[in-house]
């Protein structure tokens, strides 16, 4: 039996026409996803707590531990476990939802918008100071310390190389590199 290879030939005009349609489709799809702000898109994954509380937790986490050079996705890695835990722990879910509602009420009273939509960090910090002694704030702040700073993906962003004992310790790996201190 003879095998015949079939070749599809496309003219230059047909190729350009087809690629133009494909490019327009990709552009339309991209524009649709760009309409949703990044924080909203990240918070949309909160199925138990909801997107609104997810966005509030994300903004709150950034306000408590602000690092302008660090992307929202690293903060999200620290707060997304709340959604899974809320499914198993009704008390935690209530604490978070009540805390978010309280924060939003304060923001609405002062700025006529929810906490996550208050435009400046300084204004949001004033709202956080109002709730800082409460259980909700203390829970989020306490968990963020380990959830955010113990994330090995964040360490290089701070210049941290991670554990050193496997590599002989810090003595030969920059222990005394203190070029940021003025010399006496």
UniProtKB/TrEMBL annotation:
Protein name according to UniProt: Twin-arginine translocation pathway signal
Protein's organism: Parazoarcus communis
Highest taxon of source: Bacteria
Cleaved signal peptide residues: none
InterPro entries, sorted: Gluconate_2DH_su3, TAT_signal, TAT_signal_bac_arc
A Pfam family recorded for this sequence: Gluconate_2-dh3
